[in-house]
């Protein structure tokens, strides 16, 4: 096991968008360049194969190479792959591959093929923990239909299965309950549009979406919010919020990739079943991104 004092999931870890070519093949060279660019712009690490990375529609070979590419580019201590899978055995294999690739931690959704009960959730995390890497739980009850409520997270932490949680429920009240039940469990901001609220509540990191397009301003916002510097954080948060809220919408991948295109990065297409944004959605993302660029936030 890794040193319990070492917590590589702290800070701003970007759930990386995955650059695809026009034929929808993965552009690994461009992905490497993107990871390097994010770290050069102040981000602490990357999270490949999260939902923003479209892991569900990658082949096992592609998914493996994405992790290897990130590790080769920014170093394993900065890489926390998503290891979600329908079965616990498969998720454990992804965790073992992450370990063997040199990663320092992994991020794991609860069982997401069905609405699992607490016993199934505990068994799932217990199985993946056998890989020996620290696990950051990912609570996304909107998409998985399994809610890792504070009591269940405290139980997972008490059993030694998880060290942190990416909290995407949007319910900021949970931060305080979690701190009472499991004070040593690190809370990570999981949805961009509650960043300020959770940072003020004591979050130790941010598994982030919008830094894919606006890393420097996003990092400045996180650091100020985490330090309690609301004079800096609040105006930035207000300026960025029209974009940050897209991270919690169904079309978050398309929106973030469009913003990347607008700021001069390569966002590019998504794989089906994701389809292009509707004209009014695209116009809203475009206007908000161009406004952020005009304000010097890109």
From TrEMBL:
EC assignment: 4.1.3.3, 4.2.1.41, 4.3.3.7
Keywords recorded for this protein, A-Z: Lyase
Presence of keyword S-adenosyl-L-methionine: no
Record keyword Cell membrane present: no
GO-annotated molecular function: 4-hydroxy-tetrahydrodipicolinate synthase activity; 5-dehydro-4-deoxyglucarate dehydratase activity; N-acetylneuraminate lyase activity
Pfam families: DHDPS
Coiled-coil parts of chain: none
Family, similarity comment: Belongs to the DapA family.
Protein name, per record: Dihydrodipicolinate synthase family protein
């Amino acid at each position: 096991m890794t040193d319990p004092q070492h917590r590589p999931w702290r800070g701003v870890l970007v759930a990386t968008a995955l650059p695809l070519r026009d034929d929808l093949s993965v552009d690994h060279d461009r992905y490497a360049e993107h990871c390097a660019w994010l770290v050069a712009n102040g981000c602490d690490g990357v999270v490949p194969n999260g939902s923003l990375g479209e892991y569900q529609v990658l082949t096992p070979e592609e998914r493996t190479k994405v992790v290897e590419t990130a590790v080769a580019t920014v170093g394993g201590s900065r890489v926390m792959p998503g290891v979600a899978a329908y079965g616990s055995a498969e998720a454990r294999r992804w965790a073992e591959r992450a370990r063997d690739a040199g990663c320092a931690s992994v991020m794991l959704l609860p069982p997401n093929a069905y609405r699992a009960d607490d016993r199934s959730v505990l068994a799932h995390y217990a199985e993946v923990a056998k890989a020996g890497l620290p696990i950051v739980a990912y609570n996304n009850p909107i998409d998985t239909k399994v809610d890792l409520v504070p009591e269940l997270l405290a139980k997972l932490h008490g059993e030694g299965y998880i060290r942190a949680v990416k909290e995407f429920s949007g319910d900021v009240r949970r931060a305080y309950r979690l701190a009472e039940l499991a004070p040593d469990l690190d809370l990570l901001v999981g949805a961009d549009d509650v960043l300020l609220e959770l940072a003020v509540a004591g979050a130790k990191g941010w598994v982030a979406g919008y830094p894919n397009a606006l890393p420097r301003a996003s990092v400045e916002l996180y650091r100020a919010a985490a330090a309690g510097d609301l004079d800096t954080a609040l105006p930035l948060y207000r300026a960025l919020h029209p974009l940050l809220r897209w991270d919690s919408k169904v079309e978050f991948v398309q929106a973030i990739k469009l913003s990347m295109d607008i700021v001069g990065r390569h966002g590019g297409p998504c794989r089906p079943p994701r389809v292009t944004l509707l004209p009014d959605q695209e116009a809203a993302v475009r206007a908000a991104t161009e406004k952020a660029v005009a304000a010097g936030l890109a």
